[in-house]
Design a protein that fits this description.
The complex is a heterodimer. By secondary structure, chain A is mainly alpha-helical. Helices cover 75% and strands 0% of the residues of chain A. Chain B is built from 13 helices and 9 strands. Chain B is of the alpha/beta class. Classes of the chains: A mainly alpha, B alpha/beta. Chains A and B meet through helix 9, helix 11 and helix 30 of A and strand 7, strand 8 and helix 13 of B.
Chain lengths: 542, 487
């Protein structure tokens, strides 16, 4: 349950009202941008926290840093050598960094920096996918030779982590247990609890997992780098509590992370997934609705009574949106509309509220009302852009094209943006020749070249398409594998089998590490029954 | 002699004891495998040989005695021959099996089954004829009594005049008897197969060795460029070669200085193996996709041959395939240590199949070797399948310095043909043992003829990786067998 709750944490409030955040950003709507930014910030925070957790082995933050006090004690030659090794480590050139740390250990065996160098040497081995070597010859040596060094704590944790990463769960649990028993107050204990919670998830031991989260959230001092791990645990605990329809407990966990002003957004964000799951099933529906009501009520109480200045008005609107998101997730759309209409009444018309309301009409398939609502936008061009997008959704391309052409003339500041949208509308409407012309005027290389090639292919002008892909190949290194792959497909469409095979083989040969090589290899085998793909790679580091 | 009406009591007792011994040995060799687990191999074989051969020899003597003596009627002689048929047939199959004559064994097994069918059919015909004759005689006797009226409609199937046989009565009765017998024979065969679980055995080659890395010898030959004596004041401009320009000619020579295997025994192999045992490469058949991608001659058979070359162990002549349901037929201790699974489409697994796989991996100490044959979709399918089979085991990246990547061939990198599922090998580990190895990049294509034109170092490394995985599975299985024996 908890696992599913976490997995379903979903920021998709925009999706819920049928509005694309990409498009909102693209059209330059300030309201949408603001909202999208706040959502993105949330997503970014979560992603960063997850990445930080996952990457804590590669760079264990404070664990793989040397204190200034100890740095001061190093001689100049030692600092010089260590700096070289650190430079390569930072550049992810772990093979060279490994030899440089080795050099340091050979030259300055009795230095204050020796345990640090040994520890970093082990981290290099981890990065080079040699975990056994890292444990036996690296981390264990730090503990054996420098038991009193700060690195010995990190090494003890790293051993446990390495066992976990190698799938040796029993040994990992034992090693984590040792870390917790010996260094309970240290950051390594926090990291150990995080990893143990993960092991409990794999083993399906929910009780243990929740107990570990509770320790991290409520009993751990969030200092010396422990903050992100405790925050993540709080988020996980809150999502788990929400999945159990327990709002007060979830709120309690989230309150350890965020200020009262931030809480409405995060409540809405983390309750969204659990709410959808709960209200999907008849037996938990009542619990889901209760959770939504409690959360919405809490958010309502945070809305300031005095809404004279613009900042407070904006905050009040945002809180309303979060409440609407909760109701939407609990499958009570009518309540969303009530909130939007009440907002328009109490706080006056605003583009973001109107956009939400229009999105709601769209999701209810009341498209004419949606169009009317978009027509009330204070920023007329943004509203028109949305209407044009609606025409595209309805496959009424001529009307969309006309609107975009008007927008190019009227909104000169964003003319390039509208030019791209116009080209897309023309292509979607099957007017490929006109679309090519429009793409040519769109200043967004190599995107425009890519789409132009697509249009030429649709017109069966394969030579022109190949020419455009070749242009991308020559100019954009990162696009080269997919461009080469498309060259192969284009030749195939043109009936030039041999050229197609050669192009596909070239993908395998030139870019063997990419996903395109995989596609080309599979296509050669399936379509042409050719095994000679010329690919293959040794999987070595680049 | 056993069964003979004039045999003295001690002979009869001996006969019963021998029949019991034979049945017990048969049950043990087919289903129980207790002797094999608890006795040293030599003692086990001695018991089997003496038991089966003793019974066979006594039966032959008995038949000769019956044939030469005047006491037995012809029917009794045939009956005795029929009784002796099964143990004698079994002995022949057993002897061919022990001699490692696989072709002969199969021929004898199949031919013997056909013979058994014919013998049974002959008895059915004889019994039917006798019964029909008795019925006719009884009818004739009844009709000969004066005042007897016409017989009512006969329902007796032994009576050729039964009403349901229609016009051509004799032919219909014979056909009905033949069909009934064939059906009963097939049913009995199926039931017997079911009782034995249609058992199939997997036996590794006997031998021994140590699971350590192949040592590589590198001969280094220095080739020093010609030195030039240069006059620094010469008017001729001359670029002297740098002092360090020394070329090294490295000739790599790998010598098999030890036996690739596990445990103690003669030759390369496994201590838990048998003289007739061979390393087999069995592919797992599954529903939903192309399980047979790169299967057989010129494809995965190359890997099996190469395994034999690289390890000097005995290998089977061809690669095989079994369905997931067939995995159940392998008894614990005689099941394949490794099953290979590849493809590029869907994998559909029923809950019973997931259970069989789970039992194979955990209880029968098996291992799965997954290979992504061509798509990112297959990667997801494989992982979903493993989530169903082992829900409480999380896949992890297998380190390059893990034993599976080091023994017998140390691999400094993971070779692949195309990165369909990434560039790192994944594994599922249970109690310190890899129960599943997943290769993300179509290793099967590198084994196939032409090696997909990948560079030589890559396909050579792919062969070495395949060897390592097959060896790992067999070595782990052998250690488990040894541990079971010690228990």
């Amino acid at each position: 349950m908890a696992g599913s709750a976490e997995a379903q944490v979903n920021p998709g409030s925009f999706r819920s009202v049928g509005f694309s955040p990409q498009y909102a950003s693209a059209t330059g709507c300030a309201w949408a941008k603001a909202h999208a930014t706040s959502h993105r910030a949330g997503i970014l925070a979560v992603v960063l926290a997850a990445v930080a957790l996952l990457a804590n082995f590669a760079s264990a933050g404070p664990l793989d840093e040397m204190s200034l006090d100890r740095w001061k004690k190093l001689r100049e030659a030692e600092r010089y050598q260590l700096n070289i090794a650190e430079k390569y480590f930072r550049e992810n050139n772990f093979k060279v960094a490994l030899t440089e740390y080795e050099k340091f250990l050979t030259l300055h065996e009795k230095s204050e920096g020796a345990p640090f160098a040994q520890y970093k040497w082990s981290l290099c081995q981890v990065q080079l996918k040699k975990l056994n070597t890292a444990v036996k010859e690296g981390f264990q040596s730090v503990i054996d030779y420098w038991p009193d060094s700060p690195e010995s704590l990190a090494a003890a944790y790293s051993i446990a982590r390495a066992y976990k990463d190698m799938g040796d769960v029993k040994q990992a649990k034992k090693a984590y247990g040792t870390v917790l028993a010996k260094h309970g107050g240290h950051l390594v204990a926090v990291l150990s609890r995080v990893d143990l919670a993960e092991i409990a998830r794999i083993e399906g031991d929910e009780k243990r997992r929740v107990a570990l989260w509770q320790e991290l959230v409520f009993q751990t001092d969030r200092k010396d780098g422990a903050e992100p791990y405790c925050q993540q645990a709080a988020v996980n605990l809150a999502a788990w509590q929400f999945a159990k329809a327990s709002f007060p407990e979830g709120l309690k966990a989230l309150a350890t992370n965020y200020t009262p002003e931030q809480l409405p957004y995060y409540i809405s964000y983390y309750a969204n997934g659990p709410l959808q799951t709960l209200t999907n099933m008849a037996e938990t529906k009542a619990g889901g609705e209760k959770l939504a009501d409690e959360a919405a009520e809490y958010i309502r109480k945070q809305i300031p009574a005095d809404r004279q200045d613009e900042a407070k008005k904006t905050y009040a609107r945002q809180c309303g949106f979060y409440m609407a998101d909760l109701y939407w997730a609990s499958k009570r759309p009518e309540k969303c509309r009530e909130i939007y209409e009440q907002q328009l009444k109490e706080l006056g018309p605003a583009d973001d509220t109107l956009g939400r309301l229009a999105g709601w009409y769209k999701s209810m398939n009341r498209r004419e009302e949606a169009r009317k609502t978009y027509g009330q936008f204070a920023k007329v061009h943004d509203g028109q852009g949305q209407i044009a997008y609606m025409f595209r959704e309805e496959r009424r391309y001529p009307e969309a094209v006309t609107l975009y052409r008007e927008l190019i003339q009227a909104d000169t500041k964003n003319a390039n943006l509208w030019q791209g949208e116009l080209a897309h509308a023309l292509r979607e409407g099957g007017q490929y020749k006109e679309a090519i012309g429009a793409y040519r005027l769109w200043d967004n290389s190599p995107n425009n070249l890519w789409h132009m090639a697509g249009c030429h292919r649709a017109l069966k002008e394969h030579k022109e398409a190949v020419g455009l892909y070749q242009q991308i190949l020559a100019t954009e290194k990162s696009w080269a594998p997919q461009a080469q792959l498309q060259v192969g497909y284009t030749y195939e469409e043109a009936g030039e089998k041999e050229a197609a095979i050669k192009s596909l083989q070239l993908v395998c040969k030139r870019y063997p590490k990419t996903g395109e090589a995989s596609q080309a290899h599979a296509h050669l085998q399936n379509q042409y029954k050719i095994n000679q793909t010329f690919g293959g790679d040794a999987g070595k580091d680049e | 002699m056993p069964g003979s009406p004039r045999s003295p009591l001690p002979w009869r007792i001996a006969g019963v004891v021998l029949a019991g011994l034979w049945l017990w040995l048969l049950a043990d060799s087919l289903w129980v495998h207790a002797l094999e687990f608890h006795l040293p191999r030599a003692a086990f074989l001695a018991i089997q040989w003496s038991g089966f051969s003793g019974v066979a020899a006594l039966l032959v003597l008995w038949l000769i005695r019956l044939a030469c003596g005047n006491q037995a009627t012809r029917d009794k002689l045939w009956l005795a021959a029929t009784v002796a048929y099964i143990p004698l047939w079994h002995w022949l199959v057993f002897a061919a099996d022990q001699a490692g004559l696989d072709g002969l064994r199969v021929m004898l097994a199949q031919g013997g089954l056909g013979g058994l069918f014919c013998v049974g059919l002959a008895w059915v015909v004889w019994l039917l004829e006798s019964a029909a004759e008795r019925v006719r005689r009884r009818k004739r006797e009844a009709l000969s009594i004066p005042g007897t009226q016409r017989q009512p409609r006969s329902w007796n199937p032994l009576d050729p005049d039964a009403w349901f046989y229609g016009q051509s009565r004799k032919l219909s009765q014979t056909l009905a008897a033949f069909c009934s017998y064939s059906f009963a024979f097939c049913l009995a065969f199926l039931m017997f197969s079911r009782i034995s679980g249609c058992q199939e055995l997997y036996e590794a080659p006997a031998g021994g060795g140590k699971p350590i890395m192949v040592s590589q010898q590198v001969k280094i030959q220095k080739v020093i460029k010609k030195k030039f004596v240069i006059n620094p004041f010469s008017a001729i401009v001359f670029n002297p070669p740098p002092i360090d320009d020394v070329k090294l000619n490295l000739a790599e020579a790998t010598a098999h200085l030890y036996k690739v295997g596990d445990g103690s025994g003669e030759g390369a192999g496994f201590s838990g193996g048998t003289a007739r045992g061979k390393v087999r490469f069995i592919r797992l058949e599954y529903q939903g996709g192309d399980w047979d991608q790169d299967f057989g001659v010129g494809a995965d058979q190359n890997m099996l041959i190469q395994y034999g070359v690289l390890t000097q162990q005995k290998v089977h002549t061809e690669t095989e395939s079994r369905s997931i349901a067939q995995l159940k037929a392998f008894p614990a201790g005689k099941s394949p240590p490794l099953m290979y699974l590849t493809g590029q489409r869907n994998i559909t697994l029923s809950s019973s199949e997931a259970k069989i796989l789970r039992e194979y991996l955990l209880e029968k100490h098996g291992m799965l070797f997954g290979d992504n044959g061509g798509s990112g979709h297959f990667h997801n399918q494989f992982f979903a399948m493993m989530r169903e089979v082992l829900p409480n085991v999380e896949p992890v990246h297998i380190p390059l310095d893990d034993v599976i990547h080091r023994v017998p061939y140390p691999l400094p990198f993971l070779p692949y043909v195309a990165p369909h599922g990434g560039r790192e090998a994944w594994g599922w580990k249970v109690d310190g043992r890899w129960v599943c190895y997943y290769h993300p990049g179509d290793i099967g294509d590198a084994w196939a003829d032409g090696h997909s034109n990948v560079p030589r170092p890559v396909w050579e490394a792919c062969y070495q990786l395949g060897t390592n995985v097959i060896f790992y599975a067999h070595a782990e299985y052998n250690q488990w067998l040894e541990a079971q024996k010690r228990k």
